[in-house]
Amino acid sequence: MLPEIPYFPGIYTVILIIVMGIIASIAIGKRSRVLITGVSELVIAIAIAYLIDLPVSQSGYTIFDDFSRFISLIFLGTSFLILISLHRELSDVPRYELAASLILAANIGMIVAVSSLNIIYIVVGWELAGLSSYAVIATRRRDPVVMEAAMKFFIVGSIGFGLTLFGISFIFGATGSLDLTRINAVLSTGMYDYNLLVTGIILLISGLGFKMAIVPFHVWIPDTYEGAPYSITSFLAAASKTMAFAVGLRLFYRGLGPVSNIWQPLFAVLAIITMTYGNLAALAQTKMKRLLAWSSIAHAGYIILLFGAFGPSANLIAGGLFHILTHAIMKILAFIAAAYFAFIAGSDLITDYAGLGKKYKLASFFLAIDLFSLAGIPPLAGFVSKYLLFLGVVENGFVWLALIAVINSAISLYYYMRILKYLFFEEGKVSEVEVKVPSIYLIPIVLTGLAIIVLGIFSDPLIHFLKSISP
Amino acid sequence: MLNELYLIVITSAILFVLGIYGVSTRRNALKMLISVELMVNASALNIIGFLFYLFDVAYLEAQIFVLFIITIAAAEAAIGLSIFLALYRLYGTPDLDKVSKLKETGE
Fold first, then answer.
1. Which B residues in the span 9-68 are in contact with A, Cβ-Cβ below 8 Å?
2. Smallest CA–CA distance from A173 into chain B, residue
3. Peptide bond between residue A144 and the one before it cis (omega within 30 degrees of 0)
4. Helix, strand or coil, per DSSP, at residue A58
5. Domain span at residue B67?
6. CB contact under 8 A, B86 and A138
7. Which residues in chain A have their CB less than 8 angstroms from residue B50's CB?
8. Do the chains contact at B20 and A176, CB–CB below 8 Å?
9. Cβ atoms within 10 A of the Cβ of A183, count?
10. CATH number of the domain residue B48 falls in
11. Distances (CA, A) of A169 to A128, A307, A430, B22
12. Burial class of residue A391 in the structure, from the number of CB atoms within 10 Å of its CB (0-12 exposed, 13-18 middle, 19+ buried)
């Protein structure tokens, strides 16, 4: 049992610890970059320890249950891993302390968003995370490409926020409450305005769709992911997206559960479009980061099967949450490995990876593991989570949805294997100049790679835990 | 009574659509920012309208929510302005069409 901080119940302890980290890194300022990273990592480690230790509790408007514990651990774990490579990657940015503290601030926002059942908290946390991530991309402000990525992310992020808010205002108009439990109670009685509710739900789905990267709202994803620095891209792909799915789960399962007949078909159609379009567009990509961005969109399509195949199956929720976790881990590894190889090859083109697999064995091995896992090859974690998710979809009676998802999985194998072909089986031009390899990138690569293998082979305890969670 | 509510909902819908229209057609950074603000404020107006005509005005959470929305919109404008200012310094123009180095290439 960790020492309790007086007057700070439940989740506030974790928030207070992270706030201390922000203050510390701003206070250190320009004096020592290593110290800033060290303090941030220490703060995140303490926060993770507290999160694992905290009892399930409810105080005021915040609620801390196993769902928020699981999702918050994904956020903090992601930040822990990417801060290692961020330190190396942003070595040209003079005000590194701002980047580190913005990552921490985004974590606070995400944790607040997933540990409350009140829409006010969810919206404020959501926007704190959003604003911090716009700003953290823009820390490298002398680079035109990075600033363009930040601008695009800001514009679509604000449109998404506006749509979400407008949707929420209609849902408020239909039900008269901002509390998800009360909304659920009102919807169960059937005393609500149907037209207002449908308008609200459609607007809400499109608003959330921007952050979740569902297909009609995905246009910003490849550009922003390509432009942003690699570590921040992996933060966006892993943490930011996880928050969108978690908030979606809270809103739709907890709040709008009784009217699932309205939103379930919409999400089913969106899931089909998203996974098919994402996979087909990824086939044509020549740049590693853009390919991973499209694969991220395709995976969003699998994950929104959570909503599109809504039903009583426990495997669906467990599989969906498991896939959210494995997607985060796989995307961290993929983007940081991409950063590693881009540093060596000097470009982001997949064709320039030729022959690198023989020279840089460790990183190539784990990248290969990761790509197999993304494609869903047993016994890796990506296979187990995908299998469980599709099993849940079938159990809820959506066999055709599962069929389309399996076909899509098969398509995705092609473009993942293309990277491996260049990495291992193509002869590349041997570079005369000895490149100074950023070995620090290997720490997150090895850690996430081992996690993929371990979670794949010994998945039973985690699945058992996930089946006890209700979002 | 309900007719007035319709007026408010229609007004906020018009504001919102103007915002969407502005974001998708204007290419000037500041006009885009103004359009985004319109969208956010439309939802604030909507919430207040519903609260006043349909529900109990004493439901303070909704009023506080609107205050939060206004605050968040201000914070968003601050972040947006600083991003656009940095872009202006790099490109020398507020025209966002000129800012297009990131594109879909494909094979």
1. 9, 12, 16, 19-20, 23, 32, 36, 39-40, 42-44, 46-47, 50-51, 54-55, 59, 61-62, 64-65, 68
2. B50
3. no
4. strand
5. 2-94
6. yes
7. 169, 172-173, 176
8. no
9. 27
10. 1.10.287.3510
11. 20, 22, 60, 21
12. middle
Chain centroid to CA A38: 24
Q: Which of A40-44, A217-221, B93-97, B101-105 has the highest mean pLDDT?
A: A40-44
Residue B106 domain flag: no
Which residues of chain B lie closer than 8 angstroms to A169, CB-CB? 12, 43-44, 46-47, 50
User: How would DSSP label each residue in B4-67?
Assistant: HHHHHHHHHHHHHHHHHHHHHH--BHHHHHHHHHHHHHHHHHHHHHHHHHTS-TT-HHHHHHHH
CB-based contact A151 B68, cutoff 8 Å: no
Write the Ramachandran bin of B21: left for phi over 0, alpha for psi from -120 to 50, otherwise beta: alpha
* C-beta atoms surrounding A237 within 10 Å: 28
And the tokens for A384?
Answer: 């187990």
**Residue B102 in domain:** no
Distance to chain A for B61, nearest Cα, Å: 7
Q: What is the ipTM of this complex?
A: 0.94
Compute φ and ψ for B17, nearest 5 degrees: -65, -40
B99 in any annotated domain: no
For A72-117, write each residue's pLDDT tens digit: 999 999 999 999 999 888 888 888 999 999 999 999 999 999 999 9
**pLDDT at B43 > cutoff 70:** yes
